[in-house]
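BACKBONE STRUCTURE TOKENS:
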Amino acid sequence: MVIYGQSYMLSARNNIEFEAKVIQDIVSQTEAGGGTKGDMGQSKDFSVNYGKWIEEYMKKGCNSIISQFYDFCEPYS
């Protein structure tokens, strides 16, 4: 399925921005000792779960967190 149009492009751009923040947060955790940006502007519940998710990545690696990644993308779509 191919989707075109302004609303799709805005949604895609928001998702790309979120994905970039996730990578930045993972690097921040490994190289700079912490801090997150992927939860900015989201609810307290989202922020708490997002922080735990990043911590889980640090402990278990990538394979354990992929399914939840898509759940976190929802508010940015």
Remarks:
- The CA atoms of residues 18 and 52 lie 17 Å apart.
- The radius of gyration is 13 Å.
